What does this fold into?
Amino acid sequence: MSDDNFESRATSRLLAVQALYQMEIAQTPLEVIIREFQDHRVENPLDGTEMPPADIAYFEFIIRSVMDYQTKIDRTIDGYLATNWRLSRLDSTLRAILRCGVCELMAEQKAPTGVVVSQYTDIAHAFFDGPEGGMTNALLDRLAKAVDEGSVSIGF
It folds into this structure.
């Protein structure tokens, strides 16, 4: 993967998290979000912060997959959370981060697992000062190992 593709996918991941958050909080429909992000956010992901342009196709792949397979993704996350924790108890932003990360780890169109775990952990650290980054890293790392071992099925 070229450096440009690596950087554009990193931007796509951040935008996917932001889009899922906006969809949940504002109840914005998927197609409206995709158009809005294509028109206004792909070239300028964070106002005032220089970032590479997003890979819009990859951005769409992530958010469409999360929406299409949300039940499976959410059940997987619940299975990897600490005892007595549920996805519904987590902050909306953290839910979006975990959904995107789990989606990519479970998708047939797999990105390198180390990259997925690292980039979503970085996103969590960017949004949170507390233990959320470590929790994201631990959950995604355990799932990545389970997927690599074949004990978790992929397939979307």
